[in-house]
C-alpha cells in the first residue's frame, strides 16, 4: 500500500475529526456533520459538508469521514507494532536454537579429537546440559498444545503437516493454535504411552469444541510419516547426546580423583625419603685424622659411628 498515511492523517485532522452522515433535505441530498440536523418551528438548520447527487458516492463520503479515517490509521499503527514484536521474538528464538546446536557440535568434535582436553569441558558441559534441556522443553512444547498459550506457534503442524489456521480458546488449555479449517480445526497431536497420536477437534459449524471426543490420528501420507519419523530420530539423538555428555563428565571426575590420589602418594613417598636421608646424615661423621688403608689420601674416610661402636673400635 503506497498511500501517504501522514498526509491522510493531516487532512483528516484539519477536517475536524468529525463524523458525517448522508441526509435528504428539502429534496436535495447532502452530506452533513453528524448530529447537526435540527428542525424547530418550521426552520431547518444543519452543518453541510457537501451536496452530492449520486447516492452511492454520497453514502461513501458520509462513511469515509475524518473520524473513521483516523480510527483506521490508528489501528494500522497498532497492527504494525504487534507484527514487529512478534518478528523480534521469532528471530531471538531461532538465534538461540542455532547457537545451541553449534556449541553442542563443537563440544562433540573436541571430545572425539582430543580425549585429554575433555578435562577442560567440565564447566562447558554444565552449560551444554542446560541448553540441551531447554531444547528438549521446546520440542515438548511444539508437540503439546497445552504449553503454547500465547506463545510462538509453527506455521505448519509438526506431526500432520497441516498449515496454521487460527488461535482458538480452549476451556482447559487457554488459547491454542489450531490447524486445518475452515470447517474443522485440530490441535497439535499428542502422543500417549502406547505411541498413538490423538488431537482435539473444534467444529466451526457447531461453534465449539466437541467435548469428550478425541480424534485418533492415522498417518496415511508418506510425507507425514517421514516427518514423524524424523522427529522421533531427532529426539533419540538428543537423548543419546545427553547420555554421552554424562559419560564424559563421569570419566572426567574419575581422572581428576586418580590424579589427586597419585599426587598425594608421591608427596608421602618423597617426605619419607627426605626423613630417611636426614637420619643417615645424622649417623655419619667425618674422621678428623683418618686412616687410609688403600693409600688414597685424596678423600677422607667416612666412618659409621654405630658400626664402630658395635665392633669395639
What keywords describe this structure?
Ead/Ea22-like family protein, 313 residues, 15 strands, three-stranded antiparallel sheet, single chain, alpha+beta, 18% strand, five-stranded antiparallel sheet, 2 domains, elongated, disordered C terminus
Structure description:
With 313 residues, the chain is α+β, with helices and mostly antiparallel strands. The chain has two domains: 5-73, no CATH class; 90-241, no CATH class. The protein is built from six helices and 15 strands. Strand 11 and strand 12 form a beta hairpin. Pfam families: Ead_Ea22.
Structural class: alpha+beta
How many strands, which pairing sense, and closed or not: the largest β-sheet? 5 strands, antiparallel
Helix content: 40-55%
Rg value: 44 Å
Tell me the number of helical segments per DSSP (H or I, 4 or more residues long): 6
* Total count of strands: 15
Q: Return the string of H and E elements.
A: HEEEEEHHHEEEEEEEEHEEH
Please indicate the count of domains: 2
**Beta strand %:** 15-25%
Point out poorly predicted stretches. Answer: 218-222, 284-311
Order of strands in the sheet with the most strands?
6-7-8-11-12
Global geometry: elongated
Distance between the termini: 121 Å
Whole-number mean pLDDT: 69
Furnish the topology, listing elements before pairings.
Elements: H1 5-14, E1 20-25, E2 28-33, E3 38-40, E4 43-45, E5 48-51, H2 55-63, H3 66-113, H4 122-143, E6 164-170, E7 174-180, E8 184-186, E9 190-191, E10 197-199, E11 201-203, E12 208-209, E13 215-216, H5 222-283, E14 284-286, E15 302-304, H6 305-311
Antiparallel strand pairs: 1-2, 2-5, 3-4, 6-7, 7-8, 8-11, 9-10, 10-13, 11-12, 14-15
Helix pairs in contact: 1-3, 3-4, 4-5
Amino acid at each position: 500500500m503506497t498511500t501517504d498515511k501522514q498526509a491522510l492523517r493531516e487532512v483528516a485532522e484539519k477536517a475536524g475529526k468529525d463524523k458525517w452522515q448522508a441526509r435528504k433535505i428539502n429534496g436535495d441530498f447532502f452530506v452533513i456533520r453528524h448530529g447537526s440536523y435540527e428542525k424547530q418551528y418550521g426552520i431547518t438548520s444543519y452543518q453541510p459538508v457537501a451536496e452530492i447527487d449520486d447516492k452511492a458516492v454520497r453514502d461513501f463520503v458520509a462513511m469515509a469521514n475524518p473520524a473513521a479515517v483516523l480510527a483506521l490509521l490508528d489501528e494500522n499503527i497498532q497492527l504494525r507494532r504487534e507484527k514487529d514484536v512478534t518478528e523480534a521474538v521469532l528471530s531471538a528464538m531461532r538465534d538461540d536454537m542455532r547457537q545451541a546446536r553449534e556449541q553442542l557440535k563443537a563440544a562433540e568434535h573436541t571430545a572425539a579429537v582430543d580425549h585429554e582436553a575433555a578435562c577442560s569441558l567440565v564447566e562447558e558441559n554444565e552449560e551444554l546440559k542446560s541448553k540441551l534441556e531447554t531444547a528438549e522443553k521446546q520440542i515438548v512444547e511444539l508437540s503439546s498444545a497445552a504449553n503454547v498459550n500465547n506463545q510462538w506457534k509453527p506455521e505448519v503442524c509438526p506431526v500432520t503437516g497441516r498449515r496454521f489456521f487460527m488461535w482458538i480458546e480452549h476451556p482447559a488449555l487457554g488459547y491454542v493454535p489450531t490447524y486445518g479449517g475452515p470447517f474443522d480445526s485440530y490441535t497439535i497431536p499428542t502422543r500417549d504411552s502406547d505411541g498413538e497420536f490423538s488431537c482435539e477437534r473444534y467444529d466451526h459449524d457447531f461453534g465449539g469444541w466437541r467435548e469428550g471426543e478425541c480424534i485418533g490420528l492415522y498417518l496415511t501420507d508418506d510425507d507425514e510419516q517421514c516427518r514423524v519419523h524424523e522427529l522421533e530420530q531427532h529426539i533419540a539423538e538428543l537423548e543419546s547426546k545427553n547420555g554421552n555428555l554424562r559419560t564424559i563428565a563421569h570419566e572426567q571426575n574419575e581422572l581428576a580423583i586418580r590424579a589427586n590420589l597419585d599426587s598425594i602418594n608421591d608427596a608421602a613417598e618423597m617426605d619419607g625419603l627426605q626423613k630417611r636421608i636426614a637420619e643417615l646424615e645424622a649417623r655419619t661423621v667425618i674422621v678428623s685424622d683418618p686412616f687410609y688403608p688403600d693409600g688414597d689420601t685424596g678423600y677422607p674416610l667416612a666412618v659409621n659411628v654405630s658400626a664402630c661402636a658395635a665392633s669395639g673400635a
